[in-house]
Every structure is written in structure tokens, then in C-alpha cells.
Fold these 2 entries.
Entry 1:
Amino acid sequence: MFAVYADAPNPDDPMAALVIGERPDPVVPPGWVRVSVRAASVNLHDLWTLRGVGIKAEAFPMILGCDAAGVLDDGTEVVVHPVISTDDWRGDETLDPQRSLLSERHQGTFADQVIVPTRNVVPKPAAMSFAKAACMGKAWLTAYRMLFVKSGMQPGQTMLVQGASGGVSTALIVLGHAAGMRVWVTGRQADKRAVATRLGADQVFESGARLPERVDAVFETVGQATWSHSMRSLRPGGVVVVSGATTGDPTSAELQRLFFLQLRVIGSTMGTRAELADLLSFCEIGHLEPYIGAELPMASADQALRALLEGDAEGKIVLTR
Ligand SMILES: NC(=O)c1ccc[n+]([C@@H]2O[C@H](COP(=O)([O-])OP(=O)(O)OC[C@H]3O[C@@H](n4cnc5c(N)ncnc54)[C@H](OP(=O)(O)O)[C@@H]3O)[C@@H](O)[C@H]2O)c1
């Protein structure tokens, strides 16, 4: 079948590890289903895979892609939940120490077909396109859990999103606005801040700018470049929810501020299957849509990954079959 994969990792030149070609059709084990992929979205995770980060050397060749929407053999339209827990794990799948994300241990979604455990598909809302549904499993699910499961925010409170145009950031802006939060956003460039405004941000600021007042919660995926600003922006007792560190670990944890202002730092990763179902339902009820900056045929995956690598992406990039 057609597939976009890494033959072997390349830590220094991830694009050199990319192969757009053919891989064997998957065999469907008992308890698993085949999804004929209609759309898949690109994540920074795919660049980590090309670099060999978070994946064992013996797992290659590995088909890229964590996110997908597609059709089961019986015609059911589904969204893939990419957190693969072990068979006997019960409860929150993200807490299974043996869990993996699609394309770490099991082949990913940038292909004609992907196989997943039967529990790892959720029905796609009929009114949601495959392209939009393909954004839900990773960036949007991560944003949903950060905001609604981890932050403890109440409608009417003020949230700061670090980063204006990223996949997780744009999801946080749309979800926060829909839930009645005052959404403040930092972004590095005027055009990216304009994206945030269009999606529902109440105010946008240059990265690192002093805010008019302190906020109830900060949503972090950037890491070193924004961490001190995040800690300085919180009201006493406020919370920073962290799901990524694109620019690496902060040089200072800001411990004095942490204890003196009784701040809370909460980690968040992906979300459960039940949270994905709730997210899809919230999008259906609220007529919410992901911001798709570009939609390309899957055979042009190299263009999509290069845009992500060079910071040229806005919102989500979707690959279609
Ligand atoms: N834990 C999880 O389950 C999980 C799930 C999804 C993603 N993640 C991680 O979260 C991070 C973001 O993912 P994504 O898909 O949203 O990536 P993305 O689409 O590439 O977005 C990156 C964001 O980071 C901001 N940014 C990058 N460098 C910056 C800098 N030097 N200063 C200020 N802002 C900077 C960008 O801001 P501008 O808008 O200003 O360009 C943009 O909003 C990644 O590290 C990813 O691996 C983790």
C-alpha cells in the first residue's frame, strides 16, 4: 500500500529520513480493526519520529502519523484515538506506563490503511469532514484535556495561551472561547497573532509582553522561550498546564515565585478515548472547527513536514487520500 515512512532515523536531518513509497498491507489481528485512511494530520511528533526521538531503533521502518479519520471495513466512519494501551489496562489510558502513541511501536496513519485495537476508534460526527476529524486525535484532544480536565478553570476566567498559531494553541483558543473563557494569546509575529484573533482570542500580545493583569491559568507548549513569562503572568494560586516543550527545558524553574505565590504546575499528555468522544460531541454541539492552514494530498507529505520543520505552518496541516 501507499505509505509515508522513515526507513531509519536521522537525528540531524529529519527530512533525509523520509520515504514516500510502498509498505506491505497490514494484517488485522483479532481484537483490532482496519481503518481505510481518508485524512491524517501532521504533528511535530512526526518530526521527532524522523529524528528517532521517542522510538526504538528496532521499530524502523515506521510509517509516520498519529492522527487520522477514515472508514472501517463495515463502512463506519471513525476518528482514531492514538493512545495504544496494553490489553489488560483499565481506566485512563494515558496513565498506562506501557502505553505508546501510534507510530512509536505500531505503524502510523500516513498510509492507505492503519490497524488499531477496536477500542481505539470513536465514531466520527456525520457533519464533520474527514479533514477536520483528522485534527482531533492529538492536538485537539491534548488541548481539551489541558483545559477541561487539568486546569480547573471556570467560565469567565482568564487564560493565557503561549503561541498563537500552533496546532495545540489554536485548539485551546477555539475551545476556551467556546467555553466562555477570556482568552489571551502571545504570538511572535503579527500575522500569527491575527490568526488567534480570528479564532476568538480577546486580546493578543507579542511574546514576553507585560499583560494588563495577571491570569488564572497559562497553557504552555513552548517551554524555555516562554516559561518565565508564564510564571510571571499568573495570579497567586494560579495554574500553568504544560503539555509540550518545543524550545526545550527552562533554564530557571522560577521556584521562588512558585512557592511564594502558591502556583501550581500540572503536566498533561494526550487524553482518554472517553475524552475524545466528549471532544467530538462538544465540537458537534458548539459547531466548532479546527483551523486548517493547509490541506495537501498525502503524496505531498514532504511539503507538509518541511513547513512544520521551518515554523511556516498555521493551525493544522492535513494530508488527504
Ligand atoms: N503532551 C502531548 O500529549 C502533546 C500533544 C501534542 C503536542 N505536544 C507538544 O506540544 C508542542 C506544540 O505542538 P503543536 O502541534 O502545537 O506544534 P506547532 O503547531 O508547531 O506549534 C508550535 C507553537 O509553538 C510556538 N513557538 C515555537 N517556538 C517558539 C518560540 N521560540 N517562542 C515563542 N513561541 C514559540 C509557536 O508560536 P507562534 O504562533 O508565535 O509561531 C506555535 O504556536 C510540541 O512540542 C509537541 O510535541 C504534546
Entry 2:
Amino acid sequence: MFAVYADRAEPDDPLAALQLGERPAPDVPEGWARVRLRAASLNHHDLWSLRGVGLPSDRLPMVLGCDGAGVDDEGNEVVVHAVISSPDWRGDETLDPARSLLSERYHGTFADEVVVPRRNLVPKPSQLTFAEAACLPSAWLTAYRMLFTRSGVDPGATVLVQGAGGGVATALIALGSAAGYRVWVTSRDESKRAKALELGADQAFESGARLPERVDAVMETVGRATWSHSVKSLKPGGTIVVSGATSGDATAAELTRVFFLQLSVVGSTMGTRDELARLLQFCATTGLRPVIDAAMPLEQARDGFARMLAGDLFGKIVFTR
Ligand SMILES: NC(=O)c1ccc[n+]([C@@H]2O[C@H](COP(=O)([O-])OP(=O)(O)OC[C@H]3O[C@@H](n4cnc5c(N)ncnc54)[C@H](OP(=O)(O)O)[C@@H]3O)[C@@H](O)[C@H]2O)c1
């Protein structure tokens, strides 16, 4: 089958590790299911994999891609939940210490076919296209859990989203405004700030700018470049929900502010299968759709990876079959 895969780790030049070509079709173990992919979407995770983060050399070559939607062998239109938990794990899959994300231990979705445990398939609502559905299982699910499960703040609260252009960030803006939060965003880029306002943000600020007032919660995926601003932007008792660190780990934790203002720092990772099913229903019911920066055939995946590496995107990159 045709696939996009990593054959080595290139920490400083991830595109050099990117390969496109024929790979063996995966076997289907008992209790697992094959999905013929119709669309897949790119995440920053795929760049981390090419750099060798979370993907040791003994697992290479590895087909990349966490997110996908397609048709199973029974003809059902399905979305793939990317968190693969142990067979005997029950409950919140994101808390399973032995979990992996598709493309870390099992081959991913940038291919003609992917094979996953049957319980990882979620029905695709007919209202969503394959491309739209394929945007939801990682970045959008992460945003859904950050806002609705982990932040502890209710609609009406003011939420700051750092780094407006990212896949997780655009999902946070769209979901937050649709659910009645007052969403403020930061971005280094003026055109991304304008697009964030179109997407439903209430106000957009330059990265690091002083805000008109402090916020109830901050959604953090940027890391070092924005961490200090995130801590300083919170009201006493406020919460930072952190699910990524694109620019690296924070060098100063700002502990004095954390304890004196009684701030909460809450980690969040992906989401459960049930949260994915609710997110799909949320989109089907409200008419909300993921922001797609660009869609291209899987054969042109290198262009999509380059666009993400340059930080030159607003929303998701989708690969179609
Ligand atoms: N924990 C999880 O379950 C989970 C799931 C998905 C993603 N993640 C993580 O979350 C992070 C974001 O993922 P993504 O797919 O949304 O990535 P992405 O689409 O590449 O977004 C990154 C955004 O961060 C901002 N940014 C990057 N470098 C920056 C810098 N030096 N200074 C200021 N802003 C910077 C940019 O926003 P502006 O250009 O607008 O400033 C950029 O658009 C990644 O680290 C990823 O690994 C975690």
C-alpha cells in the first residue's frame, strides 16, 4: 500500500526523515479492524516523530499519522480514535500508563489502510465530510478535553488561547466561542489574529501583550515562548491547562505567582473515545466545522509537512485518498 513514513530520526531536519512509497499492508489481529482511509490530518506530533521524539529507532520504519476517517470492512463510515490502550484497560484511556498514540507503536493513518482495535472506531456522523471528521481525533479532541473536561471554567468565563494559528489553538477558539466562552487569543502574526477574530475570538492580541484584564483560564500549547505571559495573565485562583510545548519547556515555572495567587496548572493529553464521540456530535448538532488550512492528496504530503514546519498555517492540513 502507499504510505508516508519515517525511516530514521532527524532531530534538526525532520523533512529529511520523511519517506513516501510502498509499505506492506498491516495484518488484522483478532478484535482489530481495518479502515480504508479517505482522509487523514497532520499534527505537530508527526513532526516530533520525524525528529525521533516518542519514536525510538527500533520501531522504524513507522507509518505516520494519528488522525483518520474512512470505511471499515463492513462498509461503515468511521473515525479512528488515536489513543491505543492496553487490551484489558477499562475507563479513561488517556490515564493508561501503557497507552500509545497511533504511529508511536502501531502504524498510523497516512496510508491506504490502518488497522486499530475495533473499540477505537467511532461512527462518523453523516453531516461531516471525511476531511472534516479526520481533523477531529487529535487536535480537536485535545481542545475539547482542555476546555470542557480539564479547565473547570464554565461558559461565560474569559479564556486566553496562546498561539492562535495552531491546530489545537484554532480548535479551542472555535469550540470555545460556540460554547459561549469569551475567547481571547494571542498570535505573533497579524493575519492570524484577524482570522482568529473571524473564527469567533472576542479579542486578539500580539504575543506577550498586556491584556485589558486578567482571565479565568489560559489554554497553553506553545510552552517556553508564552508560559510567563500565561501565568501573569491569570486572575487569582485561575487555571492554566497545558497540552503542549511547541517552543520548548518553560525555563522559569513562576512558582511564586503560582502559590501566592493560588493558580492551578493542569495537564491534559488527547481525550477519551467517549469525548471523541461527543465532539463529533457537538459538530453535527451545532454545524461547527474544523478550520482546514489546506487539503491535498496524500502523495503531496511533503508540502503539508513543510508548511507546518514553517509555522505558516491556520488550522488543519488534510491529506486525502
Ligand atoms: N497533549 C496532547 O494531547 C496534544 C495533542 C495535540 C497537540 N499537542 C501539542 O500541542 C502543540 C501544538 O500542536 P498543534 O498541532 O496545534 O501545532 P501547530 O499547529 O504547529 O501550532 C503551533 C502554534 O504555536 C505557536 N508557536 C509556535 N512556535 C512559537 C513560538 N516560538 N513563539 C510563539 N508561538 C509559537 C504558533 O502560533 P502563532 O503563529 O499564531 O503565534 C503556531 O501556530 C504541539 O507541541 C503538540 O505536540 C498535544
